[in-house]
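My current task is to audit a protein record that another person submitted. Alongside the sequence sits a line of tokens, each denoting a local backbone shape. Please read both lines and tell me whether the tokens look consistent with the sequence. Do not assume that whoever made the record got everything right. Thanks in advance; the entry in question is below.
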Amino acid sequence: MPIGGEIVLTQKAEGGAINADLAVIQGTAADQVKLPAAAGDRAKGITALGASAAGKAIPVVILGPAAGTASAAITAGSFVKVAGATGKLQA
């Protein structure tokens, strides 16, 4: 979810629906994003809203504050990384 002051790119969902508040990685084309393949993948950003199907527009926060979905509890102020193929985050 956008919080304020972030930089957002409009991208297209690749490979199917993508929910809001998840980490995404670069897709096949420059204007596409997809869910990560594995834990530790380098995220392009966090989805601000969801996309209901492949090819649908999806806003991705690439710089600034963003709310993400955690795979488990994370202590406030911790750095996060991609937890796995679900796009959730972990400390």
Notes: The mean pLDDT is 94. The beta strands are 7-13, 23-26, 32-34, 45-47, 57-63, 81-82, 89-90. Residues 37 and 55 are 19 Å apart (CA to CA).
